Amino acid sequence: MDQIYQEFDDPYWSLLAQAKRPSRYCGCEWGANLKGNSGNPRKPLSARASSRSTLLFCLAFPDVYEIGMSYYGFQILENFLNRLPSVQADRVYCPWTDMEALLRKSSLPLVSIENKIPLYLFDIVGFTLQHELSYTNILTMLDLSGIPLRATGRSSKHPLIIGGGCGALVPGAILPFFDMFCIGDGEEVLPELCSCINDTKSDSRDKRLSACSKIPGVYVPGIQNKVKRVYSINMPPVPESLIVPSAPVVHDRAAVELFRGCTRGCRFCQAGIVTRPVRERSVTEVVNGITNLVTKTGWEEAGLLSLASCDFTGIEHVLRSLSGNTEFGRRGFKVSLPSLRMDAFSVELAAGMEHVKRGSLTFAPEAGTQRLRNVINKGIKDEDIDLSLEFAFSKGWNRIKLYFMMGLPTETEEDLGGIIEIAARAIRIARSYKNKRAEISISVAGFVPKAHTPFQWERQNSISELKEKGRMIKGKNKNRSITLNYHSPEQTFLEGVYARGDIKLADALEFAWRDGARFDNWTETFDLARWNRAFEKAQVDPDSYTGERDLAEVFSWDFIDLGVTKEFLLRERDRALSEEITHDCRSACSGCGMQGLGCSLSRNCGKPDK
Ligand code: SF4
Questions:
Q1: Beta bridge partners of 304
Q2: Domain 11-228 is classified in which CATH homologous superfamily?
Q3: Residue 159 — φ and ψ, nearest 5°?
Q4: Integer Cα distance of 121 and 478 in angstroms
Q5: Coil, strand, or helix at residue 438?
Q6: What average pLDDT does range 249-277 have in this prediction?
Q7: What is the pLDDT of residues 379-426, one digit of tens each?
Q8: Which helix (H) or strand (E) element contains residue 414?
Q9: pLDDT, tens digit, for every residue of 449-470?
Q10: Measured from the CB, is residue 389 less than 6 Å from ligand 1?
Q11: Burial letters 264-285, b for 16+ CB under 10 A, else e
């Protein structure tokens, strides 16, 4: 039989019965493998063969199913790939530790979720790289598939291992484990890359890698020393359908991307820099896209996604149009704006959207004082915060979640105290509306300086500094209606090491994995002691990666040309240190380097804001 997975005499079925959450592995999702899904009839995948004309592409997410299925970009990529001629795509997620043990015990390889094909039979395994603390999971997935961990150990019989997503823009620490990286939007790079890999099936591995290296947006380590990001000038079409998860996932809803990029220019935010320029969809496309997806899938909630959804030019039209849909009204349909800004306009939008009961409202002021918000260019004022809180409590919300960072550049004790002051003000505002049940939940994460941002040269706070700051904030909180949550300083430290890492960290990654490191972004599996042993064995000093960097340093990611210039980043760093705000791109262009590279806003914005 061509199809490897046979339901009733299949050894994987007995493993599912022993796994903690079998639904993570069983597939059988609505929309997967259905004729007509993604507009393309999908035949069962067959084993890899050089004579086969179809290219088999396995999209790999290095975390568990419920996290990966909530990541919209992963689904749209699969949908996109399945529309390409001669490409058939499938997905795989990292098995949790119990399933890893079961697979090892039974000597069964890791298989894709829809068609149960072992990963080693695919032509391409493409990892989505979203978080530094999921890197050890990549090694688990390769190893469980019988694919050599390092590119140097692979031959032409192995799949090509590709990395994409924001991690591919800082690939130093994972370089030896990949054959190549996609730099930029998958929709732009993948069609040519898939054709090239399909056309060179009978060539040697070196010849194929060399052919791939000539494709814009593809970086093959050891062949190129410079690569330019490629991106779509227009938004790709909204998918015709999406796969509905067969198990509870973090974000269980239909989703449409409103736009890519961000005009706000927050100086700590890597996504805001690496996705420039802003590219918007039309209102009609968004409304039709949501209506079609919700009608087809039966979801009763839709997310309007982007880095700052309320900045979408047609947001009011979209919401008006969706709330005017009588069928949606009958079904109690909900729309969510996951990235709500702290201003009256955004809260008013949220108030209009919540047809059902008032849940909690989440905002991210990021810093406790106006001064520090100017440093990070957050662009919200104390008055905005108070007005949004007043509006929220007056409209009946009881629970407000506030996200902050600690350890930001130039931070003082006053800034940390400001976090509690904002929360205390929120409680006072709630009481002024006779709201006695108001609860404020504060979440504080340690700041991690990210590559390609104006803060890429800054020092990261040590574990003990973050712990001390956490204690300080806690000590200032005297109100029982305010609860505090902290991200683990140890995990923040490890994230910081790999966020600005280089190739010297690759050995440490492998040592830690061999010592048992798995799911480092999960508190129950994370163990810093393993990493300390690994750093020692690899003879690297992790503190040297989180320390302050010289302005003249050539970074391991500098060879990637995103379009945004280093001069702009340095200029923004200077402005941060002198507490100067840089205007939103929609009101003034600050000359980031994207002028003439598809940024429609720079044409309208007059002189750069220097
Ligand atoms: S070119 Fe100007 S308007 Fe466009 S993203 Fe850069 S700073 Fe903003």
A1: 256
A2: Cobalamin-binding domain (3.40.50.280)
A3: -65, 160
A4: 59
A5: coil
A6: 92
A7: 889 999 998 888 888 887 888 899 999 999 999 999 999 999 999 999
A8: helix 413-432
A9: 999 999 999 999 999 999 999 9
A10: no
A11: bbbbbbbbbbbbbbbbbbebeb
Contact yes or no for 146/121 (Cβ under 8 A): no
Q: What is the DSSP string of 243-309?
A: PBPSS--SS-SEEEE-EES-SS--TT-HHHHHT-S-EEPPHHHHHHHHHHHHHHH--SEEEEESSSG
Which protein residue's CA is at the shortest distance from atom 2 of ligand 1?
A: 589
| Other beta carbons less than 10 A from residue 322's beta carbon | 21
Please state the domain extents for the chain: 11-228, 501-548
The pLDDT of residue 42: 40
Say how far apart CA 31 and CA 44 lie, in whole Å: 14
Tokens of 534: 């690994």
The 3-class secondary structure across 38-67, one letter per residue, is HHCCCCCCCCCCCCCCCEEEEEEECCCHHH
DSSP string, 525-549: T--HHHHHHHHHHHT--THHHHS--
Instruction: For ligand 1, say whether the CB of 262 is within 6 Å of any of its atoms.
Output: no
Ligand 1 pocket member 562 (CB < 6 A): no
| Residue type at 162 in one-letter notation | I
| Residue 539 confidence (pLDDT) | 98
Q: Is residue 565 in contact with ligand 1, taking CB distance under 6 Å?
A: no
How far apart CA 567 and CA 143 sit, in angstroms, is 42
Q: Determine the Cα–Cα distance for residues 435 and 422; give it in Å rounded to an integer.
A: 17
Q: Which pLDDT does position 359 carry in this prediction?
A: 62
Q: What is the 3-class SS of 202-226, one letter each residue?
A: CCCHHHHHHHHCCCCCEECCCCCCC
- Of 63, 66, 71, nearest to 22 (Cα)? 66
Residue whose entry in the numeric block shows the structure tokens 């796994």? 19
